Amino acid sequence: MKKFAIIGAGHFGSAIATALSEKGAEVLIIDNNINVIQNISDDVAFAVCTDATNKRALLAENILDYDVAIIAIGNDFVARLLCAANLLDIGVKRIISRTMGENQKIILEKMGITEFLSPEDEIGNIFADQLMNPNLITYLQLPEEYKVAEVLVPESLVGQKVGDVGFRENFKMSLITIRRKVEETEPKSKNGIKEQIVGVPNYNVLIEENDILVVFAKSKDIDIFIKANS
Questions:
Q1: Are the C-beta atoms of residues 36 and 14 closer than 8 Å to each other?
Q2: d(CA 21, CA 11)
C-alpha cells in the first residue's frame, strides 16, 4: 500500500488527501488548525494537528515511513519553505511542493525540491485557453508543447467518418478515443443520459453530435484543428 503524507489541510490539500484515500492509499494529513483536521479526520487514516515547520513534530509522526510528502500549504510561503527545509534535512524519499508563481518555484528548486504542483497556474492557463477556444474542454499539458486534450466535436465534423477527417494526415494529431453521451434504456439518472467510451475508434466510426474527442497533439496543432473546423 502506498503511503502519503499531506502537509496542509486547506481545500487543495484535503482534496488530494481524500482522493488518495479513496483510491486505497494510506494517508497522513497534517495541519496546525484543529478545525480543519477534525473536518477531514473521518476521511483519511491519520489526521494530526501539529506544526509542520517543526522538525521534531514531523519526526514524531514517523514521516520517514511515507513514500511521498506533499507540501500543500497555501498562502504562507515562509511556512512552506520551512517545511520543505525540514523534509529535506530529515531525508524524506520524495517531496512534492505546491508553488504559486515562478519565483516561488525558483527558490524551492534552489533548495533541492524538483517536483511541483501549481493548481492556480494550471487552472488559469486552462481557463484562458477555454475562453480562446470554447470547443476545448480540458487538457493535460505535457513536455515539448504536447497535450492530451478533450475537444467538443466541431459542428462541421458531425456525421463524418473518423477516417475521412484525416486527424494524422491533415492535423498531425492522434485520436485516442471518443466520449459519447447515449440514452439509457432504463434511466438511472434524471435526464436518462449516460456516457460511453468508444474504445480506440476505427476509420468507419461515425462522429456524432456532442461527441468529445480525446486527442494527442502539439498545442498549436490542436488550435489549428479547432479553428479549421469551426
A1: yes
A2: 15
Q: What CATH number corresponds to the domain at position 47?
A: 3.40.50.720
160 with 56, same domain?
no
Cell of 191: 435526464
Domain containing 195 equals 122-229
For the chain, how far is it from start to end, CA to CA, in angstroms? 47
CB-based contact 138:212 (threshold 8 Å)? no
The residue type at 151: V
* Three cell numbers written together for 25: 492509499
pLDDT tens digit sequence for 77-91:
999 999 999 999 999
Last residue of a domain, one of 49, 83, 117: 117
CA distance 92 to 69: 7
Q: Do 128 and 223 reside in the same domain of the chain?
A: yes
Task: Encode pLDDT of 39-55 as tens digits.
Answer: 999 999 999 999 999 99
C-alpha cell belonging to residue 183: 440514452
